[in-house]
Amino acid sequence: MHDTTNDLLHKPVMVEEVLDYLNPQTGQVILDCTVGGGGHASKILDKIKPNGLLIGIDKDLEILQLAKQNLSKTGRSFRLFHADYSDFSEVLSQAEINMVNGILLDLGSSSMQFDQADRGFSFAKEGPLDMRMDRSHGITAKDLIHRLSEQKLEELFSKYGEERWSRRIARAILKEENDTGITSTKQLANIIERVVPRGKSKIHPATRVFQALRIAVNKELESLEAFLNKIHNYMTLGARIVVISFHSLEDRIVKNKFSERARQNIFQILTKKPITPSEHEIERNIRSRSAKLRAAERV
Ligand SMILES: C[S@@+](CC[C@H](N)C(=O)[O-])C[C@H]1O[C@@H](n2cnc3c(N)ncnc32)[C@H](O)[C@@H]1O
User: Fold this and answer.
1) Mind listing the domains of the chain with CATH numbers?
2) Measured from the CB, is residue 57 less than 6 Å from ligand 1?
3) What's the pLDDT score for residue 3?
4) Is residue 9 pLDDT above 80, yes or no?
5) Is 60 in the pocket of ligand 1 (CB under 6 A)?
C-alpha cells in the first residue's frame, strides 16, 4: 500500500485485550460490527483460521473498501457488508448465518474519517460541515444546524456533548446562521471559540459540540440501543460480546444493557469495571485515551 495511505491508517485500540475477551477460536464465526480499516479484524482472522469466517460491517463505504484491501492480504475467509450494524440481522441472513460465536463493536469514528478534511469531522481542518459516516444518504451537520431551533440545538449540545455553555453556543450559531449561513468546520469552530470562556481545560472548546453533532448526524446512540436490544438472540451459548466505547453516553448504554441481560441470566458480565488502555498504549495512540472496553458471555 502507498505510504500516505499507511500514515492515514487507523490504529486499532486495545488489540490484546479485545483478543483476550473475545477469545476467538479456530473455525468460529465472528461478527465485527465496525470493521473500519480491518485492524482488529485481521488479528481475529489469524485466530479463527483456517476455516473460520469473519463478517465485517461498516456504514462507511470508503473505509469498507480499505478493509477489503487490507483483509484480502491475509488470505483468510471474510465477507464485508455496507450497512448500519443495527441492521445486523439482515446482514446475517444475507450471509446465511443464524448464530455467531463472537461479536466486536469498536464504536465511534475512525481516524481515517477525522483525517480527511472533506468529511467534515474535524474542527482542526477546514471542510464542509458534513460528518456523515454513510455519505450515500441522510442529513449532514450543516442541515441539522439549518433546521433546528435554538432550543433544540441547545438540548443537543447539552445532551450529546455534555456542554455546559450550550445555550450561548446555540444562540451564537443561530445568529451567524441567519446572518451569513454556516457552511464550514472552521467557521463553526471559530464561533464556539469566540463565545466559550477560556478555562484551564486542554481540550479544544469545540470538541463537545462537534461530538454532539456527529452523534446526532449518525444516530449513534439509537443504533447502539437497537443493536443491544436483540443481539443476544443471535449468540451461541458461550459466545462473547466485546464493546469499546469512547464517551460516557455510549458506555452507560452498554453498562446498563449488560446489567439488564445479566439479571435475566442471559449474559455473564466478564468486566466488572471497564478495561482501559495501558499508559504505554495511550502514549503511542492518543486517541485510545478515552476508550473503555466491556465484555460479556452468552450463558
Ligand atoms: C473506531 S472505527 C473501527 C476501527 C476498526 N476496529 C479497526 O481496527 O480498524 C469505527 C468504525 O465504525 C463505523 N461505524 C460507526 N457506527 C456505525 C454503525 N452504526 N454501523 C456500521 N458502522 C459504523 C465507522 O464508520 C468506523 O469505520
Assistant:
1) 3-112+220-298 (3.40.50.150), 135-217 (1.10.150.170)
2) yes
3) 36
4) no
5) yes
- Kindly state if the Cβ of 223 falls inside 6 Å of ligand 1: yes
pLDDT of residue 222: 98
d(CA 71, CA 66): 8
Residue nearest to atom 27 of ligand 1 (CA): 36
Residue 242: strand pairing partners: 104, 295
Cα dihedral: 210, 213, 214, 219 (round 10): 160
pLDDT at 5: 44
> What is the pLDDT at residue 1?
35
Is 22 within 8 Å of 104 (Cβ atoms)? yes
Q: How far is the CA of 252 from the centre of ligand 1 (A)?
A: 19
Minimum CA distance residue for ligand 1 atom 25: 60
Per-residue pLDDT reduced to its tens digit, 272-299: 999 999 999 999 999 899 999 999 999 9
Q: What confidence tier does 182 reach under pLDDT thresholds 50, 70, 90?
A: very high
Q: How far is the CA of 105 from the centre of ligand 1 (A)?
A: 8
Q: What is the 3-state secondary structure (H, E, C) of 5-52?
A: HHHHCCCCCCHHHHHHHHCCCCCCEEEECCCCCCHHHHHHHHHHCCCC
> Could you tell me how far CA 202 lies from the centroid of its own chain?
23
pTM of the model: 0.95
Q: Is 133 in the pocket of ligand 1 (CB under 6 A)?
A: yes
